[in-house]
Amino acid sequence: MAIIEPFALAIGFLLSYIYDFGVSYGLSIVVLTIIINIIIFPLTLRQTRSTKRMQDAQPELKKLQKQYKDDKEEMNKKVAEYYKEKGINPLGCIVPLLVQMPVWFALFRVLREPLLFIPKDVGLYSALEDPLSVLYFNMDLQIPASAISSWVERFPYIVLILLVVGTALIQQNQLTKKQGKSNNPQQQQMQMIGKVMPVFFGFISWTLPSGLVVYFLTGNIFRIGQQALIVKLDENQSDKSSKENEKKKEKDQENEENNEGPIVNDSRKKRKKRRRK
What we know:
By secondary structure, the protein is an all-alpha fold. The chain has one domain. It has helices at 5-19, 25-39, 41-56, 58-67, 72-86, 95-112, 114-117, 123-127, 151-176, 185-205, 210-276; strands at residues 135-136, 139-140. The protein has a two-stranded antiparallel sheet with strand order 1-2. Helix 1 crosses helix 6 (95-112), helix 4 (58-67) packs antiparallel against helix 5 (72-86) and helix 9 runs antiparallel to helix 10. The longest helix has 67 residues, at 210-276. The chain is elongated, with a radius of gyration of 29 Å. 26% of the residues are buried. The mean pLDDT is 79.
């Protein structure tokens, strides 16, 4: 596809630039993955926070589902209004995946035909002419696991694929661990996609160049740490806001008591004067 070629040329240039720092071809893919995930961090941040808001909204959503259980059209309308009010995007969790799709296709092209997209005047171009240069943990990064005939030689490829599936499940659990079963069709669809995606990635990894599978695994590990950090920072911010609100309430209460004090004293003085008279 012609639309993918500019992305492929950009990735080829980045890989060759990273490789010139003295790292291996496989490690260049790892570094490239980290760079791309840093670039799309704002999208990941929105995704994580939107998912967190959806988790927090579960009690209210269950009330709406129970209240309008006999009228699904009205229930969907009320749920959509609630999402809009709280700034929740049910489709937000797949936006980073959609953004990365051109990168996946481009990296696929680069790994399959690297000499077409990597500049000829760089060290990586010359290195790729040697088949041993594309090995990473005894895996040829340009070929898929399905192309290996021996099951013994397939072992590292299978381990790599299992790691992709495992890290994808961990990542998905981070996002949806507090979500209960929903009666909302849109949310049910998103939950189903979340369950299927790890298996889907494992299935397609069997037929994709191993370098792209390394990209998947590195991205999963990076996002697991990234999401844990975002959740921790948001929890700390929430705790800080709660403490500030408590201090404000205590201060307001003290001010009210101090303001009531003179009024009580004045009323007592007036009563004493009346008694003397």
